[in-house]
Amino acid sequence: MGKGNVQEVRFCGNRIGRGGASALAASLPTMTGIVRVDVSRCRLGDAGIKILFPSLAECSHLQDLNLSRNEISSVGGEEVGEHLNRCPALEILDLSWNAIRGKGSSVIGESLRSNRTIESLNLKWNNIGADCGFDNWAGFFDENETLTRRVASICKSIVDQLGTLRTAG
Predict the structure, then answer these.
(1) Taking the alpha carbons of 164, 146, 131, 45 in that order, is the dihedral positive or negative?
(2) 3-state secondary structure the chain
(3) Which residues, 6 or more positions from 105, have their beta carbon under 8 angstroms from its beta carbon?
(4) What is the CA radius of gyration of the chain?
(5) CA 53 → CA 72, 95, 103, 151, 160, distances in Å?
(6) Which of 46, 56, 80, 137 is a good FRET partner for 117, with 20 to 30 A between their CA atoms?
(7) Between the CA atoms of 113, 115, 118 and 119, what dihedral angle is there, to the nearest 10 degrees?
(8) How confident is the model at residue 153, as a pLDDT?
(9) pLDDT averaged over 10-residue windows placed end to end, the chain, 169 residues
(10) For position 151, what pLDDT does the model report?
(11) Which domains does the chain have, with CATH numbers?
């Protein structure tokens, strides 16, 4: 079986870090059939995301991407947001348990406003709130028609504010 036949890669919990991200980024272009990548709990950090995400964005069949628990901050969040709409088949995105706030949160939120493929979005435990790019997320939730499932515990302040916006509107 050649690399082109690989549909799923799961490195969950293996702490591959930046070096592993480099190796995976080099291999992804040859995995033309890849639909699922799970690199949760791999300690990628912002440096690993900067290395890996451009290659992930080239995976035209990628449907499910788990980047949870990777110590991604605002810097890595910006990288995700800048490349997100280059993933034409992405339906499931898990960014939970990171530290994506501020500008990183805003860039992702803005990117998702025009996204029409994401059906499931998990942002739990990123502490995204009113002072961390909430305006872009509120627009995404209001404008995105494909999102059928979102993990509502994004952040208590966002859930509270969404309720206020919907009541006021």
Answers:
(1) positive
(2) CCHHHCCEEECCCCCCHHHHHHHHHHHHHHCCCCCEEECCCCCCHHHHHHHHHHHHCCCCCCCEEECCCCCCCHHHHHHHHHHHHHCCCCCEEECCCCCCCHHHHHHHHHHHHCCCCCCEEECCCCCCCHHHCHHHHHHHHHHCCCCCEECCCCCHHHHHHHHHHHHHC
(3) 74, 77, 126, 128, 132, 133, 136, 137
(4) 16
(5) 12, 13, 18, 23, 32
(6) 46
(7) 70
(8) 39
(9) 80 95 95 96 97 93 97 96 93 94 86 85 79 61 64 46 51
(10) 46
(11) 3-168 (3.80.10.10)
Q: Give the integer Cα–Cα distance in Å for 133 and 152.
A: 17
Q: Are 46 and 101 a contacting pair, CB within 8 Å?
A: no
Residue with tokens 């890849």: 34
**Token pair listed for 90:** 């992405």
Q: Which residue has the tokens 């504010």?
A: 161
Paired tokens of 123: 């942002």
Q: Tokens at residue 128, please? A: 């995204």
pLDDT of residue 149: 56
Which residue type is seen at 130? A
* Residue 165, token pair as written in the block: 């916006």
